[in-house]
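Exam revision sheet. Question 4 asks you to relate a sequence to its structure. Input first:
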Amino acid sequence: MINKDALRFDHRGLVPAIVQDAATGTVLMLAWMDREAVEATEATGDVHFHSRSRDVLWKKGETSGNVLHAVSMAVDCDGDAVLVKAHPKGAVCHTGEATCWGDDQAEPLARTLSLLAALLQERKRDLPAGSYSAELFRKGTGAVAQKVGEEALELALAAVTEPKERAVSEFTDVVYALAVLATELGITADELARSLADKKVIASNRPS
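Answer key, structure tokens:
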């Protein structure tokens, strides 16, 4: 949660809110928040704004279904802007593009992973019937961890006995299982990025 008392709302009771893809770092859109929108975002986990044209609280994606699943919010140094990190479900812009600056702002692989993260957060929250991901979440951490192990073993076997296409399929099964586990454990994109940065340092070290 952010310190709402640190926010310097303008004469209309609004502050600009910059939305960034939590997985890719891509800037997705700019909108406006009032105190109610900040509180609704914190309470529901879905990003809300204030519609200046309609002068009402607005949940992003309430009609299109392309919601933004909030990961974090931060107030800038002057208190007059909010940075929202979120996982987008579908296109962010009303034009149907990935961002309000066009599709070319989003990296394809990172975008796909962010969309997967958003979908898994929704499945964990809503637990819809008939969803395989929701079934894993219902079974708990142990079942999810077991799934990671099973998929990793299948990948290892495919890597040495199967064609490349089969290995790719098994590889993405592992990625999916890891994404489910990350969602189950509440691991954030920032935590993964920091850990991967550490691994990058290790990988770049050369023996003397």
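Marking note for examiners. The two ends are 47 Å apart (CA to CA).
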